[in-house]
């Protein structure tokens, strides 16, 4: 939850007027449990439930970076209450794009042009026709960590959120 990209995403969403909640998956930064790749969706589901409990009048969005983007994409159709998804550095070269195909809500997929785990070219191979409402944006020259380009991530997320909230 202290990752630079995650912090910048949260800041961008707050600047657009959204409430944010960042959390660590199990086994990260001393949290309980072991990070093993499959139970983390339960962590995300519990975090979403808590956010909905605290802010019951809001329609929740989900956002995630890298592995967190994969988890957010898998959680979205399962939760049923999610209005939008923002997925940064979605690792389609590692996990494929099935969760994106079944997302079921509008969203933004923000990719680094030089990301070996999921540049736009990887996503296009895995998902030739993104579902309606899913915007794919690539930051040219950016690697998986968006080194030297993290302000562009924040700007893109803020721009997307503001535009979506105006509709």
Nutshell version of this structure?
The protein is α/β, with parallel strands linked by helices. Helix content is 43%, strand content 13%.
N-to-C order of helices and strands: HHEHEHHEHEH
Number of strands: 4
Taken together, the total number of domains comes to 1
Integer-rounded radius of gyration: 15 Å
Architecture overview:
The protein is α/β, with parallel strands linked by helices and 167 residues long. The chain has a four-stranded parallel sheet with strand order 1-2-3-4, with helices on both faces. Helix 1 (4-15) runs parallel beside helix 7 and helix 2 (40-54) packs across helix 3 (67-79). The two termini are 29 Å apart. It is 43% helix and 13% strand. The protein has one domain (4-26, 36-166): 3-Layer(aba) Sandwich (Rossmann fold). It contains seven helices and four strands; from the N terminus they run H-H-E-H-E-H-H-E-H-E-H.
Name a few traits of the molecule.
Rossmann fold; 167 residues; alpha/beta; 4 strands; single chain; 13% strand; 43% helix; 4-stranded parallel beta sheet
């Amino acid at each position: 939850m202290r990752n630079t990209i995650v912090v910048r995403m949260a800041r961008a969403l707050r600047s657009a007027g959204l409430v944010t909640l960042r959390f660590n998956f199990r086994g990260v930064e001393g949290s309980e449990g072991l990070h093993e790749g499959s139970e983390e969706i339960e962590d995300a589901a519990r975090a979403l439930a808590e956010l909905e409990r605290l802010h019951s009048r809001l329609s929740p969005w989900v956002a995630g970076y890298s592995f967190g983007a994969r988890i957010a994409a898998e959680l979205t159709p399962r939760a049923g209450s999610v209005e939008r998804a923002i997925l940064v550095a979605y690792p389609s070269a590692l996990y494929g794009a099935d969760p994106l195909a079944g997302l079921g809500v509008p969203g933004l997929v923000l990719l680094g042009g030089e990301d070996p785990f999921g540049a736009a070219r990887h996503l296009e191979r895995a998902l030739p026709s993104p579902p309606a409402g899913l915007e794919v944006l690539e930051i040219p020259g950016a690697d998986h960590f968006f080194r030297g380009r993290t302000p562009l991530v924040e700007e893109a997320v803020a721009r997307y959120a503001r535009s979506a909230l105006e509709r």
